[in-house]
């Protein structure tokens, strides 16, 4: 579960002297919202669709539409791009990339290796990764249990699952209050009734089956 497995490789990039209207057209044509800015093979910035759509000459209120469009046509990416963008390497984990995006409130991360741009990973890529990790497109059952937060709890649950010869597609855990934890299992079965019965018999609290 590394960035290299989910990033867009060979991303479309532009140079800092690109007119902003041209950059916006590139985004619309390719249905993307983030463009790395590369000069002489080196990443120098990042520009987003929002950056381009919110560009306004100053003082805008004193300009006619013609004058405003004229000034915008003269602006280049260098005037509005984010310089020194936060980057990650291809061996960064998906979890780390998600945390970086969340903490810095950004929607993408250029991926750099050996000083060269090798990819870009976006919030959409992160969501696609989670969908694949949890096997949400695979037929099966979503089972949620609540147990005491103790060593071996998950192993005990999986032992019961193994007895029923059911494959585990995905696992997630969420801490609750009072030393409790919820465990979500994605299972490769559409008939979980006997497994649920045995889990309850073992004392596990089954909160949801879907």
UniProtKB/TrEMBL annotation:
This is Acetoin utilization protein AcuB. CDD domains: CBS_pair_AcuB_like (cd04584). Keywords: CBS domain, Repeat. InterPro entries: ACT-like_dom_sf, ACT_dom, CBS_dom, CBS_dom_sf, CBS_domain-containing. Residues 142-210 form the ACT domain. The lineage of its organism: Bacteria, Bacillati, Bacillota, Clostridia, Eubacteriales. Residues 7-62, 81-138 form the CBS domain.
């Amino acid at each position: 579960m590394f960035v290299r497995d989910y990033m867009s490789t060979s991303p479309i990039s532009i140079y800092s002297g690109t007119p902003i209207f041209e950059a916006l057209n590139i985004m619309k044509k390719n249905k993307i919202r983030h463009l790395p800015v590369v000069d002489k093979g080196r990443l120098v910035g990042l520009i987003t669709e929002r950056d381009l759509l919110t560009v306004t000459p100053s003082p805008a209120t004193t300009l006619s539409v013609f004058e405003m469009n004229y000034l915008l046509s003269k602006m280049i990416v260098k005037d509005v791009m984010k310089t020194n963008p936060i980057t990650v390497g291809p061996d960064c984990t998906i979890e780390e990339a998600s945390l970086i995006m969340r903490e810095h409130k950004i929607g993408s991360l250029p991926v750099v290796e050996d000083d060269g741009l090798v990819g870009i990973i976006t919030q959409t890529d992160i969501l696609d990764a989670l969908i694949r990790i949890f096997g949400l497109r695979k037929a099966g059952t979503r089972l949620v249990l609540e147990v005491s937060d103790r060593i071996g709890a998950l192993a005990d649950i999986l032992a019961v699952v193994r007895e029923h010869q059911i494959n585990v597609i995905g696992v997630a855990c969420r801490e609750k209050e009072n030393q409790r934890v919820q465990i979500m299992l994605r299972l490769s079965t559409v008939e979980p009734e006997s497994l649920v019965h045995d889990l309850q018999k073992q004392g596990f609290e089954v909160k949801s089956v879907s």
